[in-house]
Amino acid sequence: MRTEFDFAPLYRSSIGFDRVFSLLNNPQRLQAVDAWPPYDILKVGDNEYRIVMAVAGFEDGDLDITQERNVLHVKGGKADDTKAEYLHRGIATRGFERRFELADHVSVENASLKNGLLHIDLKREIPEAMKPRKIAIGDGAQKQVPLQIEGEKQVA
Questions:
Q1: 143 domain-assigned
Q2: 112 in a domain, yes or no?
Q3: Which of 24, 32, 57, 141 is an S-S bond match for 93, by CB 3.0 to 4.6 Å?
Q4: Record's family (predicted)?
């Protein structure tokens, strides 16, 4: 049973949040949860985050990280090793694709692979135009600009 929330009352008192409401209503966000590979999301600073994924058995060339607009895609794929005969295979090296929805102005700063852990560092940089600014309150008088009806006539 799918329950839809009615965000109409919030539209009356909020401006510019339509993207957030559409994300919440997006049916793709309710897709089946795949628990592999396991990952952590850490808040490192006020505007800094880190995603750590356990990708044992993968190398740099087996992983692909791309950012499109506000979505981070992490893909992993490894060619099957048909030469070896496994008596027991406990390390999963199956392909995967994981998507992370990113907030506005969040971008990938760095990615590194060390000891089977993929570290993806993210940073939110708010543009200067988007930062809070103080608005001066004037006396209400508007500057009067003289209207020019006709240009000056040239004397011949």
A1: no
A2: yes
A3: 57
A4: Belongs to the small heat shock protein (HSP20) family.
For the ranges 9-18, 31-40, 138-147, the lowest mean pLDDT is seen at 9-18
Secondary element (H or E) of residue 41: strand 39-43
pTM of this structure = 0.63
Burial label, 50 (beta-carbon count in 10 A; 0-12, 13-18, 19+): middle
Phi, psi of 2 (to 5 degrees): -105, 130
C-alpha–C-alpha distance, residues 30 and 26, integer Å: 8
Pairing relationship of beta strands 106-114 and 71-76 according to DSSP bridges = unpaired
Rounded Cα–Cα distance for residues 93 and 58 (Å):
7
Size of the chain, expressed as the number of residues it contains? 156
- Does residue 123 sit within a domain? yes
Residue-wise pLDDT for 26-85, tens only, equals 655 555 556 778 899 999 888 899 999 998 888 888 899 999 888 899 999 887 766 778
CA distance readout (Å), 43 to 108, 118, 127, 142, 146: 14, 16, 20, 48, 57
Q: Give yes or no for a contact between 51 and 41, defined as CB atoms under 8 angstroms apart.
A: yes
